[in-house]
Amino acid sequence: MLKIAFSPIYKYELPEKHRFPMIKYELIPEQLLYEGTVSEDQFFHPAPLTEEEILWTHEAAYWDKLKHQALSPKEIRAIGFPMTARLIERGRHIANGTVQCAHYARQYGVAMNVAGGTHHSFSHKGEGFCVFNDIAIASNHLLKHRLAKKILVIDLDVHQGNGTAQIFQHEPRVFTFSMHGEKNYPHRKVPSDLDIGLPDKTEDGPYLKLLKDTLPRLLDKVQPDHVFYLSGVDVIYSDKLGRLSLSLEGCKERDRLVLQACHQHRIPVTVSMGGGYSERLSHIVEAHANTFRTAQEIFF
Q1: N or C terminus of the chain with fewer C-beta within 10 Å?
Q2: Alpha-carbon span 267 to 249, nearest angstrom
Q3: Which ranges carry the Histone deacetylase domain (predicted)?
Q4: Are the CB atoms for 291 and 255 separated by under 8 Å?
Q5: Under 8 Å between Cβ of 255 and 290
Q6: Rounded to an integer, what is the distance from CA 55 to the centroid of its chain?
Q7: Tell me: the pLDDT tens digits for 185-203?
Q8: What one-character-per-residue DSSP string does 127-151 give?
Q9: How far apart are CA 300 and CA 290, in angstroms?
Q10: CA 19, CA 191: separation in Å to the nearest integer?
Q11: SS3 call for 33
């Protein structure tokens, strides 16, 4: 059964200028249920992440600032959201959703978080709309509990995963791979174990060929026993922040390549949604929904 992390707190209300991209967290589950791709019993509501587990990944000084709403104005600007206790609580639920999805993936082969993919969160700071790094937290959870020996992070969001790269820069058990828009945010990139920067306007053909060439070699080299896949849909042509030019079908094929490779190699894969900022909300929802549809088709 495809298990999906989703909680009403994912739909946290933000000021008007931030509200548009947040609507997707409500619409994605509604669309999947409406079309019959999933049923209500496939969703679970994650509890908030414990303080202990936060501190396995994030520095105590950073957590203390979050907990006591003591970030400086500069630190708040870097994150991009106005800080409230409710926002921090939301992040704890989302991060624990990815942790619990990792357990479900070990059981069913794949599990998915409607949110997550907060790869711009460093061990000591947040930025780029990311407070906690859910994939890093879940990776450390598996390592801490000896549920994985080697983890591969496949980050295909249009933005380079600088926070994840920083957190695991000295951790040989986690291999970080990011394929992203080279000229896009962040402009100062923290090197991943493997970075592939793409030129502006890269279309389906070159993108998919590069991914097809890279994935088999990467899986053979790393030999992971767990994969975390960041499936941001800000790679599509209509994305306001993306600068790449994948079609909706190209983005779906990207998901198929990753999920099929994990299925064929019998590697559990945990999926976080990442970014999506198209002008048309329907494009965002459709592209994200395709990831769930593809997982359901391949694994079940």
Answers
A1: C
A2: 25
A3: 20-290
A4: yes
A5: yes
A6: 20
A7: 998 999 999 999 999 999 9
A8: BTTBSS-HHHHHHHHHHHTTS-S-E
A9: 15
A10: 32
A11: helix
Token pair for 42:
């496939």
Inter-residue contact 106 to 268 (CB < 8 Å): yes
Q: Give the relative orientation of helices 281-299 and 24-35 as an angle to the nearest 10 degrees.
A: 50
Task: Please name which of 95, 66, 96, 58 lies closest in space to residue 83, comparing C-alpha atoms.
Answer: 66
Beta-strand relationship, 194-198 and 174-181: parallel
Q: What is the pTM of this model?
A: 0.96
**Is there a contact between 161 and 230 (Cβ–Cβ < 8 Å)?**
yes
pLDDT at 190: 97
Going along the chain from its start, the domains and CATH numbers come out as: 3-299 (3.40.800.20)
In this structure, what token pair is assigned to residue 13? 């209300």
Cα-flanking dihedrals φ and ψ of residue 116, to 5°? Answer: 85, -170
pLDDT in tens, 124-181: 999 999 999 999 999 999 999 999 999 999 999 999 999 999 999 999 999 999 999 9
Whole-angstrom distance, CA of residue 231 vs CA of residue 275: 8
Phi, psi dihedral angles at 159 (to 5 degrees): -100, 140
User: Is residue 23 very low, low, confident or very high in pLDDT (cuts 50, 70, 90)?
Assistant: confident
Q: At what angle do helices 281-299 and 248-264 cross, to 10 degrees?
A: 30
State in Å, rounded, how far the first CA of the chain is from the last one: 7
Structural contact between residues 273 and 287, judged by C-beta atoms closer than 8 angstroms: no
The residues with which 196 forms a beta bridge, in sequence order, are 179
User: Burial, 266: exposed, middle or buried (Cβ in 10 Å; 0-12, 13-18, 19+)?
Assistant: exposed
Q: How confident is the model at residue 11 (pLDDT cuts 50, 70, 90)?
A: confident
